[in-house]
Amino acid sequence: ITPLWRFVAWCHCNIASKPSALEPNTVQQLHFLIRHVPAIAEDSPAGIGSSYLLALEIGDTVGVAGPFGDFIATDSDDCHRDQVYIAGGVGISPIHALVTSENERQRHLFHGARSEAELIFADEFKLMPTLDYHPVVDKFVHEEVAHWLNQNPGDYDFYVCGPPAMLAATLQLLADKKIPKSRIRYDDFGI
User: Fold this and answer.
1) Model's pTM, two decimal places?
2) Are the CB atoms for 119 and 135 separated by under 8 Å?
3) How far is the CA of 136 from the CAs of 6, 32, 109, 116, 187, in angstroms?
């Protein structure tokens, strides 16, 4: 396989699997969520990184570096607050990793998508006993969160990830609700 770096200087991807300790005699896997960026016109190429990654075959090897972010959950030993996750689009990828690594505290997930088909991981989320799953289709996810917070005032930790406009609107909502910045974590995909 030709190394990815020959084609792309950087290809931002999100890990969708929870961290796990290495166990003897097991194959460790990372699951990535990659959204293909198609060509928008004949003179505009498709996304180089997403096209390359989606063309890989089972068994192909690629080199990766990272992760470089700090989008991690609070420690359940230090904090017992309910966890509220707010995801839009491919922002569900790092949120999925956070949600699946937490099972001690009550969790609330608002998952925004343009269609039912884009609600990936929905079947998995619905089976989690300590997760209150709120799929939000073809509406603004931050408006659903605002409605929920009005009905469920409380002390929460917030995790937000999604497209820039969704992220900005959600962070503004949380600021308007006077949520302390120390209780808000977000991933802006390095934008």
Assistant:
1) 0.76
2) yes
3) 39, 22, 10, 9, 20
